[in-house]
Amino acid sequence: MGIPQTQRAAVVEQPGPDGKCVIKEIPVPVPNDDEILVKLSWSGLCHTDVHLIKGDWGNMGLNMTAKVSGHEGVGVVVSVGKNVKRFQVGDRAGIKWVADTCGNCEFCTNGVDELHCARQHNSGATTEGTFQQYVTTSGRYATKVPDGVSDEEAGPILCGGVTAYTALKRSEVKPGQWVVLPGAGGGLGHLAIQYAKAMGMRVIAIDGGNEKGELCKKLGAEVYIDFLAEKDIAAKVMELTMYGAHGVVVTAASRAAYEMAPNLLRPRGTVVCVGLPKDDFRAGGTPMQMVLKKLNVVGSVTATMKDVDEALEFTARGLVKPILVKGTMDDINSFVEKMLAGQLPGRAVIDLWA
Ligand code: 8ID
Ligand code: ZN
Fold first, then answer.
1. This model's pTM is above 0.90
2. Ligand 2 centre and the CA of 47: distance in Å?
């Protein structure tokens, strides 16, 4: 396949409160012996990209050192390093937040914890991301995209979908039990509704505005609570569930959502922390609440390669379908503003060639 010398990319010139993407012509990277070169077609836009572009996490030591953001990229392999056995030219490949791990440490080898590898690389943060037409990535850690999942749908599953899926598993909510989803109309949340339904859970969706409400209901939430309109969300959840919900998965990057979460739970319930607000505070309830209700507060970070394969399988089987707002590289900045205003239902995906 003819591989050009240069390509279009959305480059983040100065991450920070005024951070923006600028479209530039940059060199097409060359894979090393362990890498593949992927000609990307689509990339999802995750709120994590927004946090990084806007420098939200600088106070926590997490800054973009890469120039190009994005970590939900899908495309076709156009070149393969000589040590790579898993991919051939023409295969489809997906690039995730964790772009690569060392493969050798305790966390990489115990089968369930590779996300804690201290030597991992993160797409769009510490290694170049997916808002470009060509990207080099690990031939060992890239995901194989199954038939039956289009490129534009696979992208949002690679972070948003699989993060929602593993967070729901972390909640330990069982079929027939209640899960509350603050942030349900956003990228992770609208996929969480669908995974929760497929896993047999009963969903109470929380987000802001009618458009998100309609989306949440359409995707299978039994109840939608508008946090912009409802004064006493906890009372409403108690009324619906009698003793409170079994789990709350907080995908909203909001202090208010985290402060509310323990109040929505029944005894032995679980808050799963997923959203990553820029302000520094503690997640969890008061000691009295934690003790008397025997609550659990756990965190969940994206997903292992195995979880990603499972999450994609739900889409291949028609159980989880990302709701897409489609645009081009020129739309990234306006999508970022819409997400910050809470006005982007579902997931924005970028057609990298339009
Ligand atoms: O591995 C992880 N833990 C992980 C993976 C991927 C993303 C964590 N994240 C983090 C992102 O960095 C971000 O902080 O999850 C958060 C949500 O990402 P997203 O779903 O991509 O963002 P979004 O599409 O903007 O959706 C957020 C939703 O939350 C709602 C908004 O209206 C929006 O629909 N929301 C907010 I902000 N405050 C709310 C509140 N108080 C609220 N919904 C209910 N109650
Ligand atoms: Zn993400």
1. yes
2. 6
